[in-house]
Amino acid sequence: MTELNLVEAVNAALSCGMSRDDSVLLLGEDIGANGGVFRATNGLQARFGRERVIDAPLAEGGIAGVAVGMAAMGLRPVAEIQFTGFIYPTFDQMINHASRLRNRTRGRLSCPMVLRSPYGAGIHAPEHHSESPEALFAHIPGLRVVIPSTPARAYGLLLAAMRDPDPVVFLEPTRLYRLFKQEVVDDGEALPLDACFMTREGLDVTVVAWGAMVREAMLAAETLEGEGVEVEIIDVATLKPCDFDTILRSVEKTGRCVIVQEAPRSNGFGAEIAAEIGERALYSLQAPICRVAAYDVVVPLYRLERDYIPSVERIIGAIRGVMEGA
């Protein structure tokens, strides 16, 4: 058992996956000699060689397209996109080909690939590299969308993604890469996909979050504990397909729900969770569902970026609001 931060856990998972399965290979911009812009692939080319850790041209659509072809032919490529700000050229390949290959060929071919990318705001990246586009991918049938919230979950979920027979979009919260360390057992054991994690148990209110927002929710819960408010926290982890049953059981127990997302409020994945609760657990609610989200603007640069991200204070305010609304 070793203490790792999130980017080290990603590196450990990639190394483990490659050592156990010769069909796993990596491709992306600067991932080989430089070890990636965040060093997630540091040392892997030296260990596994240039044929399995491939430095790709600056062509995100091409990276995704090559990965689709590799996957169709029996390999398990893990493609890195340097920032989510560069991920949009991959949409053509991911939507038109990766997500549809199994259906298009009536099961004769599958697409076991992973599209990895640093994700979210908080590190003051220039040129708007800090988007949270998870809802765009989660809307597409045939794609899994996974977002870890801790080093241990990054390790286990990435291993599961590499072993999945279908395409997975794996978004890594950039702000968490080196924020804290956690004990991680590098034993090759995967965590389950398509399942929420009960991060904290409570009786008064359910907070549903994913990625970096799970940590903010935990800090809010610790503050409110001193006020006698018991907060239950659900880490969604796999947004598509989402484990709504776990969320609904929690809401039926607490009667209140706050949903926290780093993405802009309008048409975000939090609205899908709210709709599901409204359709299946409306009569369990003692107060209206509340969403805490970023604002409907492009991620602002530098000094305003911290005000853009949902804060612990905003989450605390939302929780107090639903408690008073009962």
From TrEMBL:
Coiled coil: none annotated. Its cofactor is thiamine diphosphate. Residues 4-179 form the Transketolase-like pyrimidine-binding domain. It comes from Methylocystis parvus. One of its GO terms (molecular function) is oxidoreductase activity. InterPro entries: THDP-binding, Transketo_C/PFOR_II, Transketolase-like_Pyr-bd, Transketolase_C. This is Alpha-ketoacid dehydrogenase subunit beta. Keywords: Oxidoreductase, Thiamine pyrophosphate.
